[in-house]
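Cross-posting from the chemistry board since nobody answered there.

I work mostly on the small-molecule side, so proteins are not my area. We synthesized zinc ion and want a rough idea of how it might sit in this target. Sequence and SMILES are below. Is it possible to get a predicted 3D structure of the two together?
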Amino acid sequence: MSKRPKFLAAENLARLAKWLRFLGYDTELYRAVGFNNKLRILKKDGRIYLTRCGKEAGSNIAFARKLIRSGNHLEQLREIIDFVAIDQKRIFTRCSICNSGLYDIKKEKIRELIPDYIYENHEEYRICRKCGKIYWKGSHFLEMKKTLEQIFKKIG
Ligand SMILES: [Zn+2]
């Protein structure tokens, strides 16, 4: 089994980071963290740095990096398509807000936190234990999944 890449996204790549997390990729994004501290994180965790900054990407210091050229998050995803893959088992496993793992939770336990029409129509829920966000496979989930399938189909 090949090792899955982990990423560190620059602050202005928040939407790309969200989509990578949706795909199940460990993607950190820190606000107001200087380049030297980012380098420390990259080396410690073995992450690939995603940046739109030519100066950072052109640095002489040795670290894994990828210069992102597009300003559109889906185009950005296409730019790194060689690094990533769509895997149905990995989708829906990572919090898109904070990058932590998601856990199954019984819907009865979160009854009060979910709108009635969602509760009545969905059986499967996951929760992020770090930030508390609750996920279900609603219309937003299905749209994102469909978009991703189209992106990866074009390549394959
Ligand atoms: Zn979270």
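Reply from a structural biologist on the board:
Welcome over. Reading the output above for you: The chain has a mean pLDDT of 94. Residues 95, 97-98, 100, 128, 130-131, 133 surround zinc ion (CB under 6 Å). Happy to explain the token format if needed.
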